[in-house]
Amino acid sequence: MKLLDERIWTLFKRHWPQTLTYWSVFFSFGLCIAFLGPTILDLRCQTQSTLQQITWVFFTQQFFLMVGSSMGGLFKRTLLSSLSALLSCTLIISLVFAIIPLCNHVMLLSIAMALAGKAMGVIDTIANLQLVKLYQKDSAIFLQGLHFFIGLGALVSPLVADPFLAEDSCVVGANWTANSSSSPDLQHLRSSLAGHGAGLHNISQYPLHTEGVVITRVSYAFWIMALINLPVPAAVLTLMYHERLLPCSSSSPRLLSRDSLSSGQGHGRWFGCCNPAKLRGRPATFFILHTLGGAILFITDGIIGSYAGFVYTYAVSPPLLMGHKTAGCLDSIFWASITVGRLAFIYLSYRYTPPRLLTFSLVGVILVQCLLMIFYTSCVFLFIGTCVLGLCISSVFPSMLAYTEDLLDYKGCATTVLVTSASTGEMMLQVLVGSVIHSQGSYAFLLSSTIASFMGFSLFLLFLYVQHIHRNCHTDSSKENTATEDKPNTEGS
């Protein structure tokens, strides 16, 4: 039995340059989203700032990622504007990697991360939107591949950074030794900060020096990542050349027809499908589906962000009391399982419809969270549960995006709304869960995630009910339009 039928393979062969380019820009996205946690202590030394000051760069990156996601719709009018935006953003990411070693003040570092976050947000919206436009009803398969490359990039950047991280204190003063902060403590700090600085309230008791001679080699890691990322804007530029969107490419063959170069039909201005003229006559279900889809991804991406941010804190706290090195593997296992899950769901998206995949995924998330609460004293089950949770939740975003756009006839607005909601949820739920853990204890971490899982599944059931009503309304309106068109012909005969 073939893995993919001839129709899907033909579609891919027709659009492979665009598809591989959009996948590569998501690799760039993954590189940028995962490097900050492992390198944050070396960056603290470089900027000679406190932990409280340096962790603001996490918030800056996440906030501007959300801003960039919402702004991505500005560049969707034509293929030229979309590819130009992707070219600029991927170049910005390489530039940020190159200039981070030169940022000797935390404010400069925050500005650099704001630029990177905004570029990441624009990439997130445009790449998702362009793949949905290319493949429409078959987009779920290729969206799974797109999001696989985020995980791939997120796995590469910590591996690049690891050989250059300081093993002891990277700020050395005249009256104390480099060993004043021990390696185990630094390992604990790195793992606690890996989830976007979420564990700051648990590590603020560690005194770290800010004055002295800075000894760090992390600059080499950033310059290597800048070089690794450079082929990505080169790939975007190559696609622009083949699409004859550059002045020097007028003689090259056009990959797309002239009609497909413009996405003006249903993809006008920022949230163009939601302007008053186009919204007139839309059923209420049109707006409710946008809202519910965004809310589901707000919760599920929030679960991903909060779990990655606090699973280490939970593991080293009572009753588990894991060792720092053992607990530090949990975050890597979680992201690796998400990456493997998205790779597996490329095939599953071909075999099963998005509603079935979403039902399976969301039910699986609930079951895993409930089992984690029941076996909360088992270190072994925490590793198993972390792996299974990553596999289950990995497909929710691409499947939800493809399904919602299909229901709403690929107007483009849903992609911007869903991507922005997901990035907002990833930022906000970490703050909420962090405050709950701080006030109620580490077990609240599992309880909060389980409650969020039930809320997400309940919203999905409501989403299925509303989509049923929406399709009935769409069918009724189509029948009315057909009857209206046929009526004059009947009278004339």
Total beta-strand segments: 2
| CATH architecture tag of the largest domain | Up-down Bundle
Write down the CATH class of the largest domain.
Mainly Alpha
Helix percentage range: over 70%
Strand order of the largest sheet: 1-2
Strand content: under 5%
The number of helical runs is 20
CATH superfamily of the largest domain: MFS general substrate transporter like domains
Q: CATH fold name of the largest domain, please?
A: Growth Hormone, Chain: A
Rg from Cα: 24 Å
Query: H/E element string?
Result: HHHHHHHEHHEHHHHHHHHHHH
Low-confidence stretches: 178-184, 255-271
Mean pLDDT: 80
Structural domain count: 2
What is the structural class? mainly alpha
Amino- and carboxy-terminal Cα gap: 54 Å
Largest sheet: 2 strands, antiparallel
> What spatial form do the alpha-carbon principal axes imply?
globular
Can you tell me about this structure?
By secondary structure, the chain is mainly α. The protein folds into two domains: 12-249, MFS general substrate transporter like domains (Growth Hormone, Chain: A, Up-down Bundle), CATH 1.20.1250.20; 282-475, MFS general substrate transporter like domains (Growth Hormone, Chain: A), CATH 1.20.1250. The chain contains 20 helices and two strands. Residues 178-184 and 255-271 have low confidence and may be disordered.
